[in-house]
Amino acid sequence: xxxxxxxxxxxxxxxxxxxxxxxxxxxxxxxxxxxxxxxxxxxxxxxxxxxxxxxxxxxxxxxxxxxxxxxxxxxxxxxxxxxxxxxxxxxxxxxxxxxxxxxxxxxxxxxxxxxxxxxxxxxxxxxxxxxxxxxxxxxxxxxxxxxxxxxxxxxxxxxxxxxxxxxxxxxxxxxxxxxxxxxxxxxxxxxxxxx
Length: 195
Fold this sequence. Notes:
This protein is mainly α. It has helices spanning 3-12, 21-34, 40-45, 48-80, 103-111, 117-126, 131-138, 142-149, 159-173, 177-192.
């Protein structure tokens, strides 16, 4: 499923892309009531063909989003065995993956004058950490993680959120959270034209 089509499914059901399966179910039930043949406001606004098309979109959005979340949950469950963390621990994950960094990447990080999304992605991939894993640990939506790694500043929320997201990502990757977030935020502010 393409990311654009995925976002359209969320829009059809009036949901945020970080919606849970319960929220999707609730929005689906609400949409079925709104687009029902017994809803006089709906039937007076649309002809029979338009009504069927709308219900088809609602059904398709519901089915695809549920399938996507079931697949993500299955993936997360299968990867949990690979990464065991103490649920009660603080948000400092820096010790968790230290042994997974290779000397070449460590040397590149030491020479880095700034940290952008591409460097964060490189570290994440070298440490074999999935976006879903980071999303689960931090509650940051995967769509925001993708935007951060792609330096897609226009797709990111307000600076205060982005700074927090980047700090959390840096902690999981075992990087200096303050240095990484300060560096990334300079790029963010420059790209967005903010002061």
